[in-house]
Amino acid sequence: MGFPVSLRVDGPDAQDAVDGPDGTGAVAEAADAVFAWLREADERFSPFRAASEVSRYGRGELPASRIGADLMEILDLCERYRVATGGAFDARLPGRGFDPCAVVKGWSVQRAADRLAAAGAGRFCLNAGGDVVVRGGPWRVGVRHPEIADRLCTVLELTDGAVATSARYERGDHIVDGRTGRAATGLLSVSVVAATLTEADAVATAAFAMGAAGVEWAAGLPGCEVYAVDAGRSVLRTAGFPSVGAGAGAA
After folding, report:
1. Which residues span the domain enclosing 113?
2. Would you say residue 93 has pLDDT above 90?
3. 210 CB-side CA count, 13 A
4. By CB atoms within 10 Å of each CB, which of 14, 142, 222, 231 scores lowest?
């Protein structure tokens, strides 16, 4: 999926939980399973792999009777956000193949985090390319400044939850407003805090695609808190966004 992933399991009994008495603790096995699952998700759901389920579906080579539960869930999420945004978020853009990456990333990482929690990891931070799931905090997470790579615009504190950021700084104008077919440029970045990374990541991308109006839309969703920097470099945030301080050179 083209992003680095790091995992930290923490707490007073973290080493015993990870290693176990014979070096094969449940959390250690779950940590291995996290990376195995993310590699599997990349193989199955990347639109950049010709043989993936997503690519075969996009080319019409996967009949409805052979669409598995995972792909069906991805399709349902894509449709949910397409409808909710009036078409601004759309995995089926004209002239492009079916591309659900904006849904698959958060969905697959959240599923990995759920495996860790089920294995008994009570305190951990799973970071996937800057989008983060945490348990057993408090954890502090920095939000990168949208224009200055080595600075933060805010720092937030999370105990159990997720935060995702959509921005232009890594891949340029790569998020397209499906209503116009043009790059979305109304925002420089938008970060969303939600209970799961499935929701946080999809909402952040959808809000970015909607432009400035996406901030109000995302803020109106139950359980979502938003921090955004618009094209005029104004900061827009919901009252409940869990900031604990501004980074150097805040917008």
Report:
1. 5-245
2. yes
3. 24
4. 222
